[in-house]
Structures are given as structure tokens and as C-alpha cells.
Amino acid sequence: MAQPRVVTIHYTLTNDQGEQLDSSRVEGREPLSYLEGAHNIISGLESALAEKATGDQLTVSIEPAEAYGEKNDELIQPVPRSAFEGVDVIEPGMQFQAQTPGGPQIVRVVEVTEETVTIDANHPLAGEKLHFDVEVISVREPSEEEVEHGHVH
Questions:
Q1: How far apart are CA 17 and CA 127, in angstroms?
Q2: C-alpha to C-alpha distance for 79 and 114, rounded to whole angstroms
Q3: 123 by DSSP, 3-state: which?
Q4: Is the whole model's pTM more than 0.90, yes or no?
Q5: How far apart are CA 111 and CA 117, in angstroms?
Q6: Where in the chain is the domain with CATH 2.40.10.330?
Q7: How far apart (Å, rounded) are the C-alpha atoms in residues 153 and 137?
Q8: Neighbours of 96 (CB within 10 A)
Q9: CA-to-CA distance for 46 and 78, rounded, in angstroms?
Q10: I need a labelling partner for 85 at 20 to 30 A (CA). Which of 36, 72, 107, 141 fits?
Q11: Does domain 6-68+125-149 have CATH number 3.10.50.40?
């Protein structure tokens, strides 16, 4: 396997409707740095950037399977309102951390009734085709510590 690289990018992320979902190009934000092969970013974007060099610019569309996966309806379920003991106001769009057999997981409230709260444990971008406008700012060799830890320092 080739030596992994630390790649630093500026990016703008939009959805199929052209809405901007995220960008490193806004004031006060730093470019994003990631360690290749360490699963720091979605696989489709990492693949698209694999051979790129400093100064390269590209626009790439990533299908859900190589982004945050397809939406899984089994991850949308009603839970008793009593599960939110101590929370006075529960509204659609709110996020909570739930304890699951696989560890902590973020869930989003999608509907609230007198008796139940319907939660969605899908990633908010699951099922979405994502469009990235990317500029490669720099590429460098990682330190031994970065490779050992699996992320950029």
C-alpha cells in the first residue's frame, strides 16, 4: 500500500437541490485536513481525491453508498415519551444522544405526540447524493504519530 498522505482541502458541500450544506470557505473556518486511509472523511470523497496534488480543483458527486449510506427505515421508530424523562420541551429537529447496544448514538426527533416521540437514528445526510466543490490546499507526508493515531494532529 502506498504511504498515506495528509491532505488539506477547502470544500463546499451542496445537495441535489443546490442548497449549501457545509463549507470550509466561510469566514473563521479552517480548511479540512485528513489522513488518507484512516476513514476521516466519507469514502467517495477520499477516493476522488486519491491522486490529487496541491492546487488541484474538482467538482465531484458522491452517491449515498459512498457517503452516509441509504436511509434505513428501521432506524426511525417511536419511543415512549417517558424515555425523555427530565426534558420538558421536545420538538422535531432536536437531537439527543441515545445509549444503544453498539454505544452512544445521536438521534433526531422527527415527530412528537402526547404519548410518543418518533426518533431517527439515520445520519442527517443518509440517502442524499452529495456534491463537493474542492480545492486541494496542500499535501504532505504524515508524521509517525499521525499514522499511529489514525488522524491529523
A1: 14
A2: 11
A3: coil
A4: no
A5: 6
A6: 73-120
A7: 17
A8: 15
A9: 35
A10: 72
A11: yes
